[in-house]
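lol ok so funny story. i was supposed to be doing the assay writeup but got distracted and ended up predicting the structure for this chain instead. priorities right. anyway since i did it might as well share w the group, maybe its usefull for someone
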Amino acid sequence: TQVANRLLAIFPGALLYWYHYSHHQRKIDPLSEEKSLAAHFLFLLKGHVPDPLEARAMNVSLILYAEHEFNASTFAARVAASTLTDCYSSITAAIGTLRGPLHGGANEAAMALIKQFDSLHKVEDKLSEMLSRKEKIMGFGHRVYRESDPRNAVIKSWSRKLADRTGDGYYYRVSEAIEKFMWQEKKLFPNLDFYSASAYYFMGIPVPLYTPIFVCSRTAGWAAHIFEQRADNALIRPSAKYTGPAPREYLPLEKR
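and the output, tada:
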């Protein structure tokens, strides 16, 4: 648990130090007096005590992302842990898996889509074109849930609160228009990633930080799975089903 606690504590500072230095050539103090990881993150991002509403919204987001059963990155962490490697290596395996666009990055892709629309009237035509080209609309549907993602209602309500607070809820209205269209046309519902995108936007969080925030949160869940795997460990070694050519008769080299 000591390693897990340390990673949870240092990830926000490491992430924000990298961001400020790589984007603005500025070094920051990775420490703060804030008592929660959410407020600590926002303090390091903005350089001042965070707005209470934003701190609460960020805290809710971190809770929602903290754990979600056997997704790809969690499974990768458990596979690594089953070899009795160290916690750092298991978390690294999870992060590497999260980097894949079919797992991580959905909220970044959702925000990129939302920002394409300078008019609500363009939503249906644009999405229809994308669907006709078989393009995937990120932030919709789920491999486990079939009717709705229960996390969505929570983050959507916070996205609306943040939009109301800014006085400019345009991207929230765009998000609702996209949600309505996707349900009407494909019966697909938004998952946690979709309204997380606009919630982060209203908090002034740069898009390149969206997926790393997932890591800051999900490290708690990954660590819990690593501990569980170690408690009753068996090496995870799935069997493979051969799908290659049928067996062929061996021919000596001189007859080939």
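The chain has one domain: 2-231. The two ends are 60 Å apart (CA to CA).
back to the writeup now i swear
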